[in-house]
Amino acid sequence: MDKKIKRTISCSGVQYSAIDQTKNHTYSPKMGDVALFEVLEIGKHKTVQAESKRLVTILKGDYILAAFANRYATAQFEGYVPDKPTEILEILGAGGAIGLVKSKNAAFEDIEATKLRLIGYANDEKGAVMNTIYHNKVKSAFRGEVPNNAKVILSIGSTMDSGKTTTAAFLARGLKTTNKKVAFIKLTGTCYTKDKDLVYDCGADISIDFIDAGYPSTFMVSKPDLLDLYQTLLDRLAVEKPDYIVMEIADGLVQLETEFLLRDKSFMDTIHQVVFSGGDSLAAFWGISFLEELGHKPTMIAGRFTMSPLLIQEVEDRIDIPVMTLDKLMNKDVVKIIEKSVDFVKN
User: Fold this and answer.
1) What's the whole-number mean pLDDT along residues 213-219?
2) Which of 22, 73, 164, 182 has its CA 20 to 30 A from that of 149?
3) Residue 334 DSSP class
4) If pLDDT is split at 50, 70 and 90, which confidence band does 339 have?
5) Residue 95: pLDDT over 60
6) Radius of gyration of the chain (CA)
7) Which residues contact 165 (CB under 8 A, 6 or more apart)?
8) How far apart are CA 220 and CA 237, in angstroms?
9) Residues 142 and 151 sit within 8 Å (Cβ to Cβ)
10) Burial, 105: exposed, middle or buried (Cβ in 10 Å; 0-12, 13-18, 19+)?
11) What gap in Å lies between CA 184 and CA 108, rounded to an integer?
12) 245 beta partners
């Protein structure tokens, strides 16, 4: 096959022996399975993120190498890996997450997903379908061990696009004023490196995410597997000996994986402080209440609502938790809040 193939970040590092078309009508794909697709019709996604992280333009007739994945995105597409052999598929995320759209935000009412045709599955030298998850990587079983006894600061938010990545990025910059080593983990989400790249650009010494363990997405991943993923990423940071680990969990508090992690004692026992981001004042109030009921009172709150002085005032008049604008997050005084002796109460 001499046609140029555009390889997406979702299958970074995968070297296949052959593209097998014999399985197309008999094989039911799994998350992480790698396949070659032909672009049939351009919709929402006009570009995909390549292994180089560059956004590559795609056109009708192009071939892309990508991985099957589920996606949860309240502001974009909800989609799933098909449960039976399927020829016509869709791009769920620009990093190369492929599946079938189930629902979409009303903002895309008149915009369809980019359509693909399955050409064939990427096979290894033994003829098995290649899968990205832990491909050429060592998996760690969860044991709740944080490298270098680093302080893990969890950045969570009310919804997708509530500001939690920006909060994490500017917090990382503030923590770097101590000249300590700061690492960033994005534990859950859909493959696309923009978030971890932003935190790195803001000052984190190292920035990793679930893609580094081969996961194209974490939506619908079981709790035991997510905990193992967490430990795997922590172990990858061991050589860096971080003093702080800022960690983001994607989407909102009641998203499936986010909520069960927040309710898991073994996971939360590794967390030093919680930072909550909200889109508006009511989201801030509800989010704080929800977290307090779980025994995880936020150390500080931030997010999109802090763009408005009026919303800041509404919140500050009613709560006793520091409200952090971006300027405050990256100020050296943020370290005093993080280092306060009384941590949240673990359930």
Assistant:
1) 98
2) 164
3) H
4) confident
5) yes
6) 21
7) 155, 186, 195, 198, 199, 248
8) 25
9) no
10) middle
11) 32
12) 152, 183
The model's pLDDT over 45-90, given as tens digits with 9 standing for 90+, comes to 999 999 999 999 999 999 999 999 999 998 899 999 999 999 999 9
Element (H, E) at 251: strand 244-252
Q: Hey, what are 200's tokens?
A: 């790195």
For 295, which DSSP code?
T
Which residues does 74 contact at the CB level (< 8 Å), separation at least 6? 105, 159, 160, 251, 252
pTM over 0.70: yes
Domain ranges of the chain: 5-123, 147-338
- Residue found under tokens 């995105």: 73
Indicate the residue type of 110. D
Is the pLDDT at 341 greater than 90? The verdict is no
The token pair at 26 is 């008999």
pLDDT at 346 over 50: no
- Residue 131, CA distances (Å) to 221, 253, 320, 325, 347 in order: 15, 30, 48, 42, 37
pLDDT of residue 342 exceeding 90, the answer is no
CATH architecture observed for domain 147-338:
3-Layer(aba) Sandwich (3.40)
